[in-house]
Each structure stands twice: as structure tokens, then as C-alpha cells.
Amino acid sequence: MESPFPPFDPGKPDVEDGPVRRRIPFRHIVPNLITILSICAGMTGIRLAFEGQFEFAVGMVLGAAFLDGIDGRVARLLKGQSRFGAEMDSLADIVNFGVAPGLVLYAYMLNEAGAFGWIAALLYASACALRLARFNTMLDDPKRPKWHSAFFVGVPAPAGAGLAMFPVYLSFSGLDLGIPEITATIASVYLVFIGLLMSSRLPTWSGKGAGLRVPRDYAIPIILVFVLYVALLLSFFWETLSVTAIIYFVSIGFSVRAFGKRAKRETRSAADQAGSR
After folding, report:
1. How high is the pLDDT of residue 148?
2. Among 99, 92, 88, which Cα is nearest to 66's?
3. What is the DSSP letter of 193?
4. The pLDDT of residue 90
5. Helix 157-164 and helix 100-108, axial crossing angle in degrees, nearest 10
6. Is the sign of the CA dihedral 237, 240, 246, 250 positive or negative?
7. Which residues form the CDP-alcohol phosphatidyltransferase C-terminal domain (predicted)?
8. Is 217 inside any structural domain?
9. Per-10-residue mean pLDDT for the chain, 277 residues long?
10. pLDDT at position 18, please?
């Protein structure tokens, strides 16, 4: 009897098992399961926001960002990368980091700004979609230099979602202007600004392809700093997230500077090679 479901096609040639049924390694499915879990987390965040459980809602969006960060690494570890997984990941990103943050923010504070708050949420989600579409097209660009893999073009979607929640972090930390309409208007303008950063051409550091190496003497201090960060996160969750967002904003300036230096070095090297011919 033929299955009512279409065969799972990860975008790679599968090993045929007989004339009818094909089998694929289970490792091709695991990354997609993680992606599905991230979608469930993002959607649950929206539901919790509508129910007024905003702290848990923000936590779900951040959890979706965590799952998005590990699904690709799990795929590479299990050698289960596929075109199917890449496309599915992009579809999950628009839900988790475009729609979910916009709706959570709207339900929490942007609704106080009326139509302006809703327009800000729409613009943010649209900017996220444009950023993801551009990212997918750049993957197929054969002329892109390899060193560009150390940088994203624009703020990546998960980081953008984390930055979009910055007004919520401040509010949960006890920092509030006390006037809902003004706070909502400022948050709306800020949300549109984050959308512009996501769809911009600003180079931001990427963990992929950076090839970062540290001196052996710095290994233990780095571990201790990481432990300190986790301890602060557990003890002062919203305050630590607020400081983290500020540090990320500062890092954008350094990444732009580093990208410019490497681009100039590449141009100078190409000019020297052309002159030596």
C-alpha cells in the first residue's frame, strides 16, 4: 500500500532500497526536528504573550533563537546538511524572529501607540523577511570571497530578535518612563530601527568561518568570564540581557571597522598581483 505522505526529500540523492521505497539516514531528520521545535517555541511565545505571560513569552522567543543557533551545528556535526533543511530554517526564522517578536512587543507595549505601534511591527517583520531572502540568495553567489563568511550582511535574524526585545528587558528590569503612550512610541521607533539594521548592508561578525584562535594563557580567563556571564544571567536575567544588547550594539562598530580593513587589504593585494603581471 502506498503511503499517503510524500517521501521526505532532503535535497540529496538517497540510497534506494528496492524498486519502491527509499531510505535515508536518521541524521538527516534530526536537524529538521530541532527546527520544528524552534517554530513551536516561537508560536508558543505568541500564545503566552496573548495570555499576558510576557516573561515566559520572551523566554520562548529567546529559546527559539537558541535552537536556531544549534540546528545548523548539529547538521554539520551529523553530516546531515541539506537544501531542504536550509529552506526550512529560513521559513522558521521568519516566524520566530520576524512575526513572534513583533507580536510579543505589540501585545506588551506597542498597542499603547495605536496604529503606529502596529505599523512598526509590520515594518519589522517585513525587514526580517527581506533580510532572510537576501541571505538565501547570497548563499548561491560563487563570486563571494571566502573571508566574507566571517561576517553577516546586516544584523542576523536571531540577534535582531534579541535586540528587538531590548525595551522589554529594560521594563522587566524596572526601568520605565511611566507614561505608556510615550514608552510605546519610543519602542515603536526603536523596533523599526532594528528592522533597518537587519536589512542593511552593515557587516556584523559571524561565528561561522571566523576561525578564532586564542592564546593558551587566555583560555582559563575566558572560561571564567563565561562562567561569570552565566552566573549573572541566572541571578540578574533581564539586567544581563540588557547589558548584552548594549555590548552587541558596540560590537557592530568594531565589526564594520574590521571588515573595512580586510576589504582594503584584499583590494591592495589584488592591485599588487595585477601590477606584477
Report:
1. 72
2. 92
3. H
4. 84
5. 0
6. negative
7. 218-252
8. yes
9. 61 47 72 92 95 95 91 80 79 93 95 94 94 78 71 90 94 83 93 94 75 77 93 94 95 90 76 63
10. 47
Q: Taking the model in full, what pTM does it have?
A: 0.84
Please answer whether residues 150 and 219 qualify as being in contact, where contact means their C-beta atoms are separated by less than 8 angstroms: no
Q: How far apart are the C-alpha atoms of 103 and 88, rounded to whole Å? A: 22
Identity of residue 181:
E
In a domain, 5, yes or no: no
The b/e string for 224-247 (b: 16+ C-beta within 10 A; e otherwise) is: eeeeeeeeeeeeebbbbbbebbee
Q: Write the single-letter amino acid at 140.
A: D
DSSP string covering 201-270: --EEE-STT------GGGHHHHHHHHHHHHHHHHHSHHHHHHHHHHHHHHHHHHHHHHHHHHHHHHHHHH
Query: How far apart are the C-alpha atoms of 67 and 38, rounded to whole Å?
Result: 6
Q: What is the pLDDT of residue 50?
A: 93
Task: Write the CATH number for 67.
Answer: 1.20.120.1760
Cell 598581483 sits on residue = 273
